[in-house]
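Any chance you could type out a protein's amino acid sequence plus the matching backbone structure tokens because I've never seen that pairing?

——
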Amino acid sequence: MENKQIQGNKKIHVAGKDFITVPNILCYIRILLVPLFMYLYLAGDSGGIGVDRNYTMMWLGVSVIAVASITDYADGQIARRCNMITDLGKFLDPLADKLMQLAIVIVVGIMFQRETGLPYIWILLALFVLKEFTQFVAIIALFKHGKYMNGAKWFGKVATFGFDVVMICLLMMPLFDFTNINVWIIMVVCSGSLLIFSWVMYIIEVVKMWNSPGGNIPYSLYKEKGDKND
């Protein structure tokens, strides 16, 4: 029965108890850490370059990202090892990741503008938002078409890792008063290239899945209307 694939009417199954599982509570914490990071880092840099900066607050902001990463790892391990994987968690986990990524891009954008006076970073932000939006729309469209993209793809993992590394480096540079404009621009271009690469590969994957025969939505993830809840 678990291998059954659904192509008819479908709905995501969320039980009331799913809202208070440990992995999902950790996801809530990660979401709450997003505005805390933005406040600490930007408030620390409100004075500008040099001695006017509150480096303690900026370092605390970077530490919040580290804490969020730890909770991200922890909720995944707990969910898998303690059989606490839920449909709600499958929504909350990537949501928390994307919110933190978006917050980092916004903060880096503000810092980049302050340091260089150039607008290039906002092009990167627009690319990031457009990429995430189109991927979200694609997931919904595939689902209604009876298809399910199971797990992250290699190109997405590579692009996300490279993008995150570049963003963290850009966050760290002001902490050491490093303001080489050429280096900043090169790193922003690298980030944009990674986003475009992942975006194009994702679209190709979506088209292939859309044109493939049959459906592949697992019964273990979605219930047909009229089925009894487990």
Observations:
- The longest strand covers residues 10-12.
- The longest helix spans residues 181-211.
